[in-house]
Amino acid sequence: MQAMQVERPGAPLRMVERPIPMPGPGELLIEVAACGVCRTDLHVAEGDLNGPLPIVPGHEIVGRVRALGAGSEGFSVGDRVGVPWLAQTCGRCFYCQTGQENLCDAPLFTGFTRDGGFASHVVADARYCFPIPDRFGDAEAAPLLCAGLIGYRALRLAGAGEAIGLYGFGAAAHILAQVATWQGRRAHAFTRTGDAAAQDFARSLGCGWAGGSDEAPPELLDAAILFAPVGGLVPVALRHVRKGGRVVCAGIHMSDIPAFPYADLWGERSILSVANLTRADGREFLHIAAQVPVKTHVTVFPLAEANVALDRLRTGAIEGAAVLQP
Ligand SMILES: [Zn+2]
Ligand SMILES: [Zn+2]
Question: How many domains are there within the chain?
Answer without folding.
Answer: 2
